[in-house]
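HOLO CASE FILE
Compound: N-carbamoyl-L-aspartate
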Amino acid sequence: MTDRLTITRPDDWHLHLRDGAMLANVAPETARHFARALVMPNLVPPVVTGAQASAYRDRILAALPAGHDFTPLMTLYLTEATDPADVVAAHDTGIITAVKLYPAGATTNSASGVRDMDRIRPVLEAMAQQGIPLCVHGEVTDPSVDIFDREAVFIETIFDPLRRAIPGLRVVLEHVTTSDGIDYVRANDNIAATITTHHLVINRNHILAGGIRPHYYCLPVAKRETHRQALLDAATSGDSRFFLGTDSAPHPDKAKLAPCGCAGCFTASNSMAILAHMFAQADALERLEGFASLHGAAFYGVEKNSGTLTLVREPYEAPRQIDTPEGPVTVFDPGFTPDWRVAE
Ligand code: NCD
Ligand code: ZN
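Model generated. Tokens follow.
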């Protein structure tokens, strides 16, 4: 077995960097290993216009350490009032890479999301025409639907009809968590899916069995083991429709360890070590580069990165937490010591 692996520098196609005090502490964690990241727009208030995305990008760049080699790729938060012309202009001028659809109320800071999909038809048609990808948080919000079924029900009742109505639209099913989602991506055109680091590692037992573990609570919530297996199969298969989007989503511990704790796992610091471990265990280390560094770039139509990242087979103990002005943020604990680490 090899002890050293050099891959094209990876990209993170789904990342939360937050803003203000938190931003400066979390951005370097991603910039250390990743060349680019698609930055989610669910700030308070959300990033809904091209001008706001441009200002947010400036704040991210200002928060990065000197000498960094990291490019934030921006997204717009789709609302029922989004102006198609603003989206097209922001894309034409290179300010944004994609647009994010949150069903209203589906997750952290999604109150301004979409309730009536018919209202966003004009903007989606303009995006299809211009080749602007739509990133989708794929969960229904109907309180009568069981939380573990929300992705599968979304795909059947909202996502599939929406795709059929606008077949030219390029879509990414973000942080897919079910075999239903994997099967759907495999069976259709113009579609890809991001898979997170943590959903390759945990199933719902990790959250709920033997005590409740708030640091494993994220949205979409981790499902049963058969679904985790389906995600791992897809990620390690070499199929270019599946690529890494860590969904690293920092919340201060005081917001996670609360009677109503926030959803999100913070994986920016140790994603690459965990992924190397998981891919090695699946005897698919040679496919890590495709998943983390090549497939996403190909889908988004950007050049692969010119830099590299080297991983070495040495045990890696990640820091337990990082400090931020809002308090400590706990780093995702995979429940094992990765056999691999990023070379210094
Ligand atoms: C994300 C967050 O905290 O912004 N949380 C999460 O559990 N993934 C939002 C999201 O991507 O759903
Ligand atoms: Zn997310």
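CASE NOTES: Residues 255 and 261 are 6 Å apart (CA to CA). The chain is about 35% helix and 15% strand.
CLOSED: yes
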